[in-house]
Amino acid sequence: MGIGLVDPILPALATQLHAGHTQVELLFTSYLVVTAVAMLVTGWMSSRIGAKRTLVIGLALIAVFAVAAALAGRIGGIVGFRVGWGLGNALFIATSLAVIVGSASGGFGGAIVLYETALGVGIASGPLLGGLLGTIISWPGPFFGVSALMLIALVATLVFVDRTPTPAEPSRLSEPLTALRHRSLRTTSLVGLLYNWVFFTLLGYAPFLMNLSALRLGAVFFAWGVLVAIFAVLGATWLKGRFGTARTRSTAA
């Protein structure tokens, strides 16, 4: 939910803080670039302090920097605090998927579907809540909303996620890059790069083109996220079983 919560208030943010579209888009650029780079070291860190501690640190960082962004008052400060937000996001996202895969009773495939479904539901409900908070409280509202959600997730992780032991042999920093020697993984990573590039271009810039209120923008992205969740659970599974993974991915692209 935290990924899309601030999306509906981007036009209002630009207007109220007298910022250009390029400056506002740096909210996504700084956040995502740091997330991408930091993900290269999350496995190394998790293998030394344990997955649960890594999750907790990531959630705490997001909660703190989301509040700091809400209190910044200037676009430059918000962009800067999004850097710390992106670091927390990297620690959480990469580690949470590993924990879900390791804990799921439905097997590896079921765990991935569960993860993608949660992502779709979050993308759906996040912008809707962000639009509501942006309408009621103005632009800082969604940032405070992100912090509150991350605190709830932090408590849930502490209470419900079992303590994960550290591996006998810690990961090396070079492992994510040396893994790219595998051709299929390298190709899939490149496809993922292009897909996410397009996805966040639409997510980040579309609000400026639709000329809608924050609440209506939230409703648009809510409908989009609902479809993501539905097709992640039903459509993707059925198409993969009928046509195979490669053909399904090619048709979707």
From TrEMBL:
This is Major facilitator superfamily (MFS) profile domain-containing protein. It comes from Pseudonocardia yuanmonensis. InterPro entries: MFS (IPR011701), MFS_dom (IPR020846), MFS_trans_sf (IPR036259), YfmO-like (IPR053200). Keywords: Membrane, Transmembrane, Transmembrane helix. Residues 1-253 form the Major facilitator superfamily (MFS) profile domain. Coiled coil: none annotated. It is found in: Cell membrane. PROSITE patterns: MFS (PS50850). It is a multi-pass membrane protein. Pfam families: MFS_1. The chain crosses the membrane at residues 26-44, 56-77, 113-137, 143-161, 190-208, 214-239.
